[in-house]
Amino acid sequence: MSHSHCDHDHSHDNFDEIGIQYNLFEKIDIENLQCLNESVDGAGKTVFKPWDKRLDRTQYVESDADEELLFNIPFTGNIKIKGLRILSEDSDSHPAKLRLFKNKPNMTFDDVSLEPDQVFELQKDSEGLLEYSPKIVTFSSVSHLTMHFATNFGAETTKIYYIGLRGEWTPGHKHGVTICTYEARPNLEDHKLSHLDSVSKAIQ
User: By the 8 A CB rule, do 169 and 142 touch?
Assistant: First the structure.
């Protein structure tokens, strides 16, 4: 019995830790997030939520014309994605395949024939127990992530209740910092900017 009790405590601690780590939803430019083929306009934005809200069944996205869903997810900086979790209901409407595209904004279903950067065969998960691990080398500098849920387990439509992202965030792009530096120097001509590169790099 004591062994079982330890396993329970360990699991509880892990879930608390997961909640702390799965915070990249805060770094999504949610106003510009797109979900194509959602049955209710704006529903796709609601599945990017805090870990402790993952079991909230009142907010979810369901596909419309068929089983496919396509998310275009812009971030407020650069993301290194280390893990993701997909939570749905234990039914055939659970997504079965996820295709990831890095830094390809504004994709449509006409573009999904492109070769994805990674493909995951998903398993049914109604609690968020399963973590999928993107290739860190590929997904180490992501300003925009496209998630194409291509198929489900046989239902006419796909439902998703929670999408969680774990990783690291760094603010902005380097040229943003550089522009701020230049703006502090009035009347600087464009052709003179190159010699300042080393200065702005040193500041970063």
Answer: no
User: How far is residue 52's CA from residue 68's CA, in Å, rounded to a whole number?
Assistant: 27
What tens digit of pLDDT does each residue of 27-76 get? 999 999 999 999 999 999 999 999 999 999 999 999 999 999 999 999 99
Query: What local confidence, expressed as pLDDT, does residue 49 receive?
Result: 96
Phi first, then psi: give them for residue 27, nearest 5 degrees: -105, 10
First to last CA, the chain: 54
Q: Tell me the pTM.
A: 0.78
Please report, for residues 16, 48, 129, the alpha-carbon distance to residue 126 in angstroms, rounded to integers and kept in the order given: 18, 15, 8
